[in-house]
Amino acid sequence: MLPRSTRREFLARVGATAAGAALWPRPLSAGGDEAGKPKARVAIARDDALTTGRVAEHADLVRKLLDASMQKLTGAPNAATAWRQFFGKKDRVGIKVNTLGLSTQPAVVDAIVAGLGAAGVPAENITIWDRFDVELAAAGFNLNKSRSGVQCRGTDAERIGGGYQGDIESNGHIGSCFSRIVADDVNALICVPVLKDHNLAGVSLGMKNFYGAIHNPNKYHDHNCDPYVSDVVSHRFIGPKWRLTVCDATRGQYHAGPGRHAGFAWPFGGLIVSDDIVAADAVGAELLDEKRRVEGLESLAAEKRPPKHIATAGARGLGVADLSRIERIEV
Question: Which pTM does this prediction carry?
Answer without folding.
Answer: 0.92
